[in-house]
């Protein structure tokens, strides 16, 4: 690939908690074996276009999963859906190692694993290139002063919608009722998205879903499709962290 295109103009607001974590030897072995062929490092500000058919070695409908955690649901979905390519992106290193281990153990040829900030990666994906985007149990950031860190907010939704093909699906799930309401309001307000009936069984249960359900929290699945009509260009602007943070 040619020289990297970078945008260093803005420092992004982070949607994730910095978390420590070490890879187990199973994760480290999988990382050593599979990262060169199945891994992708996401660098802040890198705007080099990502060629999805080149990344997967084949041209097939592509699903992006943002914040896959330990990757069990990603691996299960990819195994059950070999005709589509699955690109998972996560910042948590043990999760990256775990998904790579599952890729090796299950022999998944249709999975690629990106490490870094998902919204940085999304900028590198061409408009209309994705068949689906999955955002399962994103960090709820319950305190009002942290709501700006939530992944599902208007500028991010506009960017994700722009990367979907017409008819492509944005599927979000949360166990946090107040975030579910805010998500629905944001997604309903996007001019290029149309709500679909909820289909909770359209995905496997995730680790964080199990935790939420065990704590008695209700699970909300919100599915939207990108309309085929013209939509305003994505408000791809990244916001800047105020100096006080
Ligand atoms: C609450 S966990 C849910 C994990 C998994 N989807 C599940 O349901 O078990 C949210 C995950 O999203 C990841 N995450 C949050 N913001 C992210 C971002 N901008 N890019 C990549 N991963 C992100 C976090 O590291 C965390 O692992």
From TrEMBL:
Q: In which pathway does it act?
A: tRNA modification; N(7)-methylguanine-tRNA biosynthesis
For this UniProt entry, the molecular function terms from Gene Ontology, in alphabetical order, are: tRNA (guanine(46)-N7)-methyltransferase activity
Instruction: State the source organism's domain of life.
Output: Bacteria
Q: What EC number(s) does its UniProt record assign?
A: 2.1.1.33
- The segments labelled Disordered in the record are 195-214, 224-245
Q: Give TM regions.
A: none
Q: What residues bind S-adenosyl-L-methionine, as annotated? A: 65, 90, 117, 139
Q: Which Pfam families match?
A: Methyltransf_4
Which keywords belong to this entry?
Methyltransferase, S-adenosyl-L-methionine, Transferase, tRNA processing
Matches recorded under InterPro entries: SAM-dependent_MTases_sf, tRNA_(Gua-N-7)_MeTrfase_Trmb, tRNA_methyltr_TrmB_bact
UniProt catalytic activity: guanosine(46) in tRNA + S-adenosyl-L-methionine = N(7)-methylguanosine(46) in tRNA + S-adenosyl-L-homocysteine
Q: Write out the biased-composition intervals (Basic and acidic residues).
A: 202-212
Q: Which residues bind substrate?
A: 143, 175, 206-209
Provide GO CC annotations from the record.
tRNA methyltransferase complex
Q: Which PANTHER family match?
A: 3-DEOXY-D-MANNO-OCTULOSONIC-ACID TRANSFERASE/TRNA GUANINE-N 7 - -METHYLTRANSFERASE (PTHR23417), PENTACOTRIPEPTIDE-REPEAT REGION OF PRORP DOMAIN-CONTAINING PROTEIN (PTHR23417:SF14)
Against HAMAP family, the record matches this protein to: tRNA_methyltr_TrmB (MF_01057)
Member of which family? Answer: Belongs to the class I-like SAM-binding methyltransferase superfamily. TrmB family.
Known function: Catalyzes the formation of N(7)-methylguanine at position 46 (m7G46) in tRNA.
- Protein name from the UniProt record: tRNA (guanine-N(7)-)-methyltransferase
- Species the sequence originates in: Actinoplanes siamensis
What's the name of its gene? trmB
């Amino acid at each position: 690939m040619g020289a990297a295109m970078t945008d260093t103009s803005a420092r992004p607001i982070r949607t994730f908690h910095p978390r420590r974590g070490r890879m187990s030897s199973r994760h480290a072995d999988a990382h050593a074996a599979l990262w060169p062929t199945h891994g992708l490092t996401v660098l802040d500000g890198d705007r080099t276009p990502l060629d999805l058919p080149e990344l997967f070695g084949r041209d097939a409908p592509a699903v992006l999963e943002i914040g896959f955690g330990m990757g069990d649901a990603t691996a299960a979905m990819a195994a059950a859906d070999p005709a589509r390519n699955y690109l998972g992106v996560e910042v948590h290193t043990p999760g990256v190692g775990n998904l790579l281990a599952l890729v090796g153990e299950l022999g998944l040829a249709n999975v690629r694993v990106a490490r870094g900030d998902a919204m940085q990666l999304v900028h590198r994906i061409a408009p209309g290139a994705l068949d689906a985007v999955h955002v399962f149990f994103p960090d709820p950031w319950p305190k009002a002063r942290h709501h700006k860190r939530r992944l599902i907010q208007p500028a991010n939704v506009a960017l994700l919608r722009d990367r979907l093909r017409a008819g492509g699906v944005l599927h979000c799930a949360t166990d946090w009722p107040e975030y579910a309401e805010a998500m629905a309001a944001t997604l309903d307000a996007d001019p290029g998205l149309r709500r679909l009936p909820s289909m909770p069984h359209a995905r496997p249960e995730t680790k964080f879903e199990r935790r939420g359900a065990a704590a008695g929290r209700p699970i909300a699945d919100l599915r939207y499709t990108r309309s085929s009509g013209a939509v305003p260009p994505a408000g791809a602007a990244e916001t800047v962290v105020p100096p006080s943070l």
